[in-house]
Amino acid sequence: MTVQELPGAVAYRPTPPPAWKPRIDPTPLLPDPEPYRVLGTDAAASVAPELLLKLYAQLVRGRRYNTQATALTKQGRLAVYPSSTGQEACEVAAALALEERDWLFPSYRDTLAAVARGLDPVAALTLLRGDWHTGYDPREHRIAPLCTPLATQLPHAVGLAHAARLKGDDVVALAMVGDGGTSEGDFHEALNFAAVWRAPVVFLVQNNGFAISVPLAKQTAAPSLAHKAVGYGMPGRLVDGNDAPAVHQVLTEAVSRARRGEGPTLIEAITYRIDAHTNADDATRYRVASEIEAWREHDPIRLLEQELTGRGLLDDDTKQAATDAAEAMAADLRQRMNADPVLDPMDLFAHVYAERSSQLQEQADQLRAELDAEGEER
């Protein structure tokens, strides 16, 4: 029998102490009920033609990059490739929203964002080829290593952004993650630290519907992933992830907000993964073809072409120029990826620790001895 069940007992209704009050008003932090859009709305008229054409050229190039990288896996030149076909608007907008001094923290699916930021396409694929730890110097390009463990790049982004602010550096970090990554503890820890520290960081969640084969409804019961922002004290934004100028605008505003010292933002971009999770995945086991075709009608390139054509900004010559540039990139990528790389096995021990441990040195010495013995046998 509980206290409440005793005869004559007064119901126990605990109340917070008198000093309790909300730390901040949650209302401004809540996302809009519908994803923000630009294309097909009155807002499209205010987008500069130069930006629309730049986005279009990058989308066409990005689509060709995805198809070429996927083909390289079938030819054995890549071990695995997580395609971002259908998500190119998020990838391109993320790269273009940053200043040169800012940092990008990509996941394993965000090679296109790194390429759109200026990274050599071959360098972006080096990790997925299995040749090198990263394939590029993160400090030189201000692009963190492609992160294959889910969401572990998010605390790194917060740490870098917080450190930059403490040093007085005008730097913003943009961290990209998929909807599956929001189920990881690193996601929640990163958002909490970022909000408490008011770190200049932007979190972009590409909600493409599936964490491999697990649909979003089996991961969370939240109204949207953007709603999770209010629990940490930061604004949440919901945007159509296939609307390139909309994603660019929302990201640019969030980056500017972070640069002004107003803290982090969580952005959920609603998009769709047209291809399988990777070339090793059979997506037909968990989704139907009609679902994919419905999203093809909302393709980011198609949406932008409609806007550009309607405004008289896209003619056959402009389309051909974008296609030619994309084909030239693909041809160069094919040629260089088809060349067998010259690898040094001793590179396995490079960039592991700033000061090599005794155990690692012992392993390095052992490998060196084996390589020397093989050389003598030849």
From TrEMBL:
Tell me which residues make up the Dehydrogenase E1 component domain. Answer: 68-344
Question: Which stretches does the entry tag as region Disordered?
Answer: 359-378
InterPro entries, per the entry: Alpha-ketoacid_DH_E1_comp (IPR050771), DH_E1 (IPR001017), PdhA/BkdA (IPR017596), THDP-binding (IPR029061)
Q: What are the required cofactors?
A: thiamine diphosphate
- Identify the domain of life: Bacteria
The reply on keyword Oxidoreductase is yes
Question: Which keywords, in A-to-Z order, does the entry hold?
Answer: Oxidoreductase, Pyruvate, Thiamine pyrophosphate
Q: What is the protein's name according to its record?
A: Pyruvate dehydrogenase (Acetyl-transferring) E1 component subunit alpha
Q: Name one Pfam family in it.
A: E1_dh
